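> call design_seq(struct)
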C-alpha cells in the first residue's frame, strides 16, 4: 500500500474532494443511474491501474467466501449513488440532500445493537435522539420537490448504512480490494438498470458534461478512493471519523456560498444537530488522572 508522509492531510484532501461532487453531477445533464454507472466504471479502471502499479494482487482464493457479500454490498453502493444523485436533483439545496445523507451513521448506531448485540449507551441514545431531531428540522420544508429529494436522500442514507453494516460481516479483505470488487458488482447491477430505464445517453454529452463526468469518475471516485484507502489505515479511528466530516461541511458551503441555494434557519440548526451529534457519538473520551506529588 502506498504510504504518505502526512496521511491526515491526504485524508482531509480526499474528504474535501468528496464534498464537491454535487455540482459536477448536475453539470453532466445525465440521469442519475447513468452517472452512477460511469462513476463505477471509471473508478474501477483507475483502482485497477493503482493495484497493478503497486503490485497488489487480490487473493481470490482466501476471500472466495466473502464474494457474495461483496456483490450484494456493491449493488447497494450503486443504488445508493443513484438515490443520492436524485436527492441532489430534487432538493432546492444540495446541502439539504447531503445532510439527509449523513443521517447514515445514526442508522448504523441504531441497528448495530440489534445485529451485533452491541450495547446502546446513554450517550448513543442522546446522540440518536438529537440527530433525529435535526433530521426532523431539515424536513420541515414546504416545497413538494424538496420532500421528494429528502426521501431520496434518506433512502441513500439507508443504503449507505446497509453497505457499512454488510462490510462488518466481510472479513479478511483489504479496503481497496473490497472497494474494487464492490465497484465491479455495482457495474453488473447498474448496466441492466440503466438499459431498462433512461438508456445510455453518453453520446449526447457536450464538452462541459463530458468534463464533469470525467472528473466524477477519475477524480471523485478513482483517485480519491485510492488516497482514502491508502491513508485511512494509517490513522486512528477517531481522527479518521473527525476528518470525514469535512465532506458534508464542504458540500454545505458550496451549496450555500457558491451555488447560492437557499437554506432556512431551522435547516441550519437541523444540520448542526445531525453533524454535531453523529460526530460526538464517534468520539471516544478518555478519562485522565492528574498525577499529584
Amino acid at each position: 500500500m502506498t504510504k504518505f508522509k502526512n496521511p491526515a492531510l491526504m485524508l482531509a484532501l480526499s474528504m474535501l474532494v468528496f464534498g464537491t461532487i454535487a455540482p459536477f453531477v448536475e453539470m453532466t445533464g445525465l440521469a442519475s443511474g447513468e452517472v452512477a454507472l460511469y462513476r463505477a466504471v471509471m473508478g474501477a479502471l483507475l483502482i485497477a491501474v493503482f493495484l497493478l502499479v503497486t503490485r497488489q494482487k487480490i487473493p481470490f482464493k482466501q476471500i472466495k467466501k466473502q464474494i457474495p457479500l461483496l456483490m450484494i454490498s456493491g449493488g447497494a453502493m450503486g443504488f445508493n449513488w443513484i438515490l443520492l444523485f436524485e436527492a441532489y436533483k430534487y432538493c432546492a439545496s444540495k446541502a439539504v440532500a447531503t445532510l439527509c445523507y449523513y443521517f447514515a451513521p445514526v442508522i448504523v448506531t441504531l441497528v448495530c445493537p440489534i445485529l451485533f448485540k452491541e450495547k446502546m449507551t446513554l450517550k448513543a441514545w442522546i446522540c440518536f435522539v438529537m440527530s433525529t431531531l435535526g433530521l426532523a428540522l431539515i424536513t420541515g420544508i414546504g416545497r413538494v420537490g424538496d420532500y421528494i429529494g429528502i426521501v431520496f436522500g434518506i433512502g441513500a442514507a439507508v443504503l449507505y448504512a446497509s453497505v457499512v453494516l454488510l462490510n462488518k460481516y466481510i472479513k479478511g479483505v483489504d479496503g481497496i480490494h473490497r472497494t474494487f470488487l464492490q465497484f465491479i458488482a455495482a457495474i453488473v447491477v447498474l448496466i441492466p438498470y440503466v438499459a431498462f430505464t433512461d438508456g445510455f445517453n453518453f453520446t449526447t454529452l457536450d464538452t462541459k458534461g463530458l468534463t464533469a463526468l470525467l472528473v466524477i469518475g477519475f477524480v471523485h471516485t478513482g483517485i480519491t478512493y485510492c488516497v482514502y484507502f491508502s491513508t485511512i489505515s494509517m490513522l486512528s479511528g477517531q481522527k479518521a471519523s473527525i476528518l470525514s466530516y469535512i465532506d458534508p461541511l464542504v458540500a454545505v458551503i458550496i451549496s450555500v456560498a457558491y451555488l447560492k441555494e437557499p437554506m432556512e434557519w431551522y435547516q441550519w440548526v437541523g444540520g448542526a444537530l445531525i453533524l454535531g451529534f453523529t460526530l460526538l457519538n464517534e468520539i471516544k473520551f478518555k478519562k485522565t488522572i492528574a498525577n499529584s506529588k
